[in-house]
Amino acid sequence: MIDLRSDTVTQPTLAMRRAMAEAVVGDDVYEDDPTVNELQRKAAELLGKEAGLFVCSGTMGNLLAVMSQTQRGDEIIAGRHSHLVTHEVGGAAQIAQVMIHPVDHPQDWIEPEAIRTAIHSEDIHEPQTRLVCLENALSNGGIVPLPLLRQTYQTAKALGLRVHLDGARIFNAAVACGCSVSEIAACADTVTFCLSKGLAAPIGSVLVGDRAFIERARRNRKLLGGGLRQAGILAAAGLTALDTMTERLQEDHNHAKLLGELLAQIPGIHVEKERIQINMVFFKLCNDKIQPADFLKKLNKEGILTNPEDHGLFRFVTHYGIMESDVRTAAEAVRKIMEG
Ligand SMILES: Cc1ncc(COP(=O)(O)O)c(C=O)c1O
């Protein structure tokens, strides 16, 4: 099968599996695991922050960021379609017990003006606005321009707010905007990034920020049951991912562009071409002869895996397991289906 569902389906490389087998480990709840400590140090250094914390997933990293920078009843500002709002089981509300002030924007950006409008006053009737949650790269496959990210951060800071960045795909964003991850991370107080997804590690994310924040997050991680013991086995794969997998992301982006171009030539397919900035291609069917569920079934039969359409759009995601030949095969399969 050519699996275009997500970059979360990537398999760990041989180098990762070897590093896992050979990892020197200790009990990470005692902060004794040298491999975890090295991953956290390296991640913090790369992103230009004081400290890092290895966590089970991007979802856990984002939740810890909210829990560790707010109090019950506070309000956070976040994009209406952001992963934190739409795909994290409402953890911010359920567990951190904060209110979410969702922000709308045609490209899912958060502009400075949106923060000025959303922030509450000190009036005792109003919840306290504490935190702005940004995302880059965006779940919609786009990136936020760096100058805008900087302005948004400066505005939030001037208003006394903390800023968290969901940088699950921050390395894709950096490649796409031709900057370093630390330049993006400088636009937030705390950042989560994923070692799984495009970097192909089997498990894990890192949360980075100042030392005091990371100590609060460590306590909250224990509360959530995320205090792992010989976690160096997993961190070893993460270190290999940082050493070997970040540079190659351009290849995934090139494949997404190629896939977008090939799909756009097929009658009945409309590709959202302007959205192809990282490794995601969004498209819709504009042909009455085939229904989305039928299209999905036929794709599957042709050996192409993808998720059901969401808000009228299908998404193909390129990643480490997808070669140029797979891109061409997938486009051919779509053509065959559309031509009936
Ligand atoms: C933008 C974004 N943030 C956070 C996450 C959550 O990561 P995880 O699946 O590791 O919990 C994802 C997962 O796809 C994501 O796309």
UniProtKB/TrEMBL annotation:
A GO term, aspect molecular function: L-allo-threonine aldolase activity
GO process annotations (BP): glycine biosynthetic process; L-threonine catabolic process
Sites of N6-(pyridoxal phosphate)lysine modification: K197
Matching InterPro entries: ArAA_b-elim_lyase/Thr_aldolase, Low_specificity_L-TA-like, PyrdxlP-dep_Trfase, PyrdxlP-dep_Trfase_major, PyrdxlP-dep_Trfase_small
Keyword Lyase on entry: yes
Homology family: Belongs to the threonine aldolase family.
NCBIfam families reported in the protein's UniProt record: GntG_guanitoxin, PRK10534.1
Name of the protein: Low-specificity L-threonine aldolase
